[in-house]
Amino acid sequence: MELRHLRYFVAVTEHGSISQAARGVHIAQPALTKQIRDLEEELGFTLFERRSRGIQLTPAGQQFLTDATRILNEVALAKERARRVSNGQIGSLSIAITVLHALLPIFSQIMRAFRRSLPSVSISLRQLLSGPQLEEIRSGRLDAGFLFFRPAGDEALAGFTIHREPLVLAVPHDSDWAAKPPERLQELCDADFLWFPRKASPDYHDQLIHCFRKAGFTPRVTQEGEDNSALLSLVAAGLGCTILPATASINAPDSVVFLKVKDLDIKLPLELVWRSDNSSPALQRFVEVVQACVSPDQ
């Protein structure tokens, strides 16, 4: 039994005669008659009673019509759902973004635009450091991530910059630095400096150390935090100062003051990154939406 047998059967019931149904489905009447007989033979029971004034469904035929109609409707729905998946119109995505950067206006703009464009695609959003994001993307547990420091020359990963993040000095509001901001990093040599272990983000750590050395600044590390949120909490508690992305100032506690320092001139490229061989249509549509939201000068 094939779907065409069901379609022919339903067409005959809708038209009330085989001759009219044959015209409706665009095949010859003898061919349609044979298809109905083949179907009855396979089923093992009669679907129609042939009468002088036409045909009438048997009780078994009435039940078969109900089920055949349901099956054809489900096939049509399955076809439509598959078409929408292939076009990236429905599905699901697992996305991550670095700690704090979910508050960026560009990220909010991207998420709103994607929801307007593809309301039937669901997104699971996580906050992860850049290093763990890269591991999750490579393993396939993440479809894409907004992160820093995509490895140069790694053809397994694709991506582009969505935002360039300046760095700022974060100090306690009641500190001497808040009252008299330093002009250069070197002035912080004797300050209680809050830092993070290199393993948390090696590339970020090394870029900052290079910047510090160029400025003649050797930080006197007194405490460590695993990520930017932890460092911000330590500053808010008055335990020292640190370097943070400027985004940390969004919704930060009043006990923290953010300062620009002349020779803290790094701008970190926040990128959307995904695996090059990820062929998910929903992911491709997401990438297109992000590209449309990003300023050409990023």
Question: What characteristics describe this protein?
Answer:
11 strands; D-Maltodextrin-Binding Protein, domain 2; alpha/beta; 7-stranded mixed sheet; transcription; 298 residues; 23% strand; transcription regulation; DNA binding; DNA-binding; 10 helices; DNA-binding transcription factor activity
3D architecture notes:
The protein is of the alpha/beta class. It folds into three domains: 3-86, Winged helix-like DNA-binding domain superfamily/Winged helix DNA-binding domain (Arc Repressor Mutant, subunit A); 91-162 and 269-293, D-Maltodextrin-Binding Protein, domain 2; 163-268, 3-Layer(aba) Sandwich (D-Maltodextrin-Binding Protein, domain 2), CATH 3.40.190.10. Helices cover 42% and strands 23% of the residues. The protein is built from ten helices and eleven strands. The chain has helices at 3-15, 18-25, 29-43, 59-86, 105-117, 130-139, 176-179, 202-214, 228-236, 281-293; strands spanning 48-51, 54-57, 91-97, 121-127, 144-148, 157-172, 192-195, 220-224, 242-245, 256-259, 267-275. The strands form three sheets. Strands 3, 4, 5, 6, 9, 10 and 11 form a seven-stranded mixed β-sheet that branches. The protein has a two-stranded antiparallel sheet with strand order 1-2. β1 (48-51) and β2 form a beta hairpin. α5 (105-117) packs across α10. It is rod-shaped, with a radius of gyration of 32 Å. The two termini are 58 Å apart. One of its GO terms (molecular function) is DNA binding. Belongs to the LysR transcriptional regulatory family. Residues 1-58 form the HTH lysR-type domain.
